Amino acid sequence: MATATVATRQNGWDIKYHKQVIGKGTTLPILMYAMAKDGRLTSTNLDAWITTDTDLADGLYQIVGKQWLPVKWAEVDEFPPVPTLKKVATFDITLDPVAHKRALACASTDKTRYVLTGVLMEVVEDGIVWVATDGRRLTVFKQEQKVPAKAIGKYILPHGSTGKPNGNLLNLLLKDKKHPVVRVTVTGEAMIVFDTLDQTITAKLVDGTYPNYKRVIPNDNPGLLRVDCGTMQAALKELKPFISDDSRAVKITIMAKHVRMYVTDPDRGIEHTVDVPCDHLRRVKDMQPLGLALPYLLDSTAYPDGPLYLGYNDNLSPMCFGNKVDGEQMVMTDLTVQMSMRLD
Question: Considering the entire predicted model, what is its pTM?
Fold first, then answer.
């Protein structure tokens, strides 16, 4: 990949990258700063190192407003350097702003479920499978592409020291909206390197075994219907003001020509119903209403505009969402699964 040019860049152009790790989740004063050395500016929270080209003189710098100002009261030698790693394989990926953001949304924010706060990047022979789950919903999507044989394996991208999706390595990359193509370097250590035209991120991988996500995905959906994704998203946003407790379920009734969604908030004495037109590819008769969490529904239906397919079995089974079908079956390597809730 081409090297970023700094000659015409003004002081502070790269703050949007570095501020994502500076001082996050640390009690070490030195990590409140960035280090400039040999034309490279580095910041770290000890989980990830972000490096950009710079024309700043060697030394330590802090963010003040929209500029880097030199720090005189700390020594450069105290700053943790970027680890030296052994390169095993390199390949390029293209970030999907819709699918990858959906993965971030489905990752757990529970720090006690350490592995699930990460996003799984599984490199297989014919591409990359991305997976994220918090135990209540799961999203999986595959990018078909050529990958080097030495890169095949499972890599859990770190959640960041905050334990929140916005600290995830994937989110750091999505911030660079001008460069969706990212060069990935797999190393001989439990670390990974992502490089765009503007930033290089060297990060620790999550240490652990990701659960067998394939067991969560239903093998078959006896019921399958199609709605318009934009219409479904608009309907869910219409329901949002009428529910103040995210633990309350949206009651979903599958009808002949509509998917009826109903919410109620007894504490405020309000309720609301929205009908979304649908076409049935297969329909389960005498289907009982399902209960699904509204915030999760918004994430589960976050697909590009166009057809959105809903696969279901019964009111106690998970519901599947996706925009790809093969014949009359949902593509199991590209969908989101959401667990049902008990209706009052």
Answer: 0.89
